[in-house]
Automatic annotation (TrEMBL):
Keywords from the UniProt entry: Cell projection, Repeat, TPR repeat
InterPro entries: TTC26 (IPR030511)
Residue numbers spanned by region Disordered: 70-100
Biased composition (Basic residues): 72-84
Predominant location: other
Biased composition, class Low complexity, residue ranges: 85-100
Subcellular location: Cell projection, Cilium
Protein name: KIF-binding protein
């Protein structure tokens, strides 16, 4: 049911070339486990979601499903560096507990 509704919205002429329309099509293909198709849509809207954790999670899952590991490792290491600037390791560890 959800897959059909995502497809209905994403394929409509009024939404097919919009960010929400592309998100719907990516969700449709995600539910169908057609991850190559998921990546077609997610890569087309990736510049708009660089700092969105939900988007990056779904993009990472799709990349892993098709064996695209290199892009995910590079992005994670750059995000880790960005988070660590300006904070001492003691402050970071103390404010977030034991999780890295």
């Amino acid at each position: 049911m959800a897959q059909q509704l995502f497809q209905l919205v994403g394929a409509s002429t009024s939404e097919c070339d919009t960010i929400p329309g592309r998100q719907c099509m990516a969700s449709c293909f995600f539910l169908l486990r057609q991850f190559e198709d998921v990546l077609v849509y997610l890569k087309s809207i990736k510049p708009y979601f660089q700092n969105d954790d939900d988007f990056n999670w779904n993009h990472g899952i799709a990349c892993a499903a098709v064996g695209e590991y290199k892009d995910r490792r590079r992005r994670r290491s750059s995000r880790s560096r960005a988070r660590s600037t300006g904070r001492s390791s003691a402050t970071s560890a103390g404010s977030r507990g034991a999780t890295p």
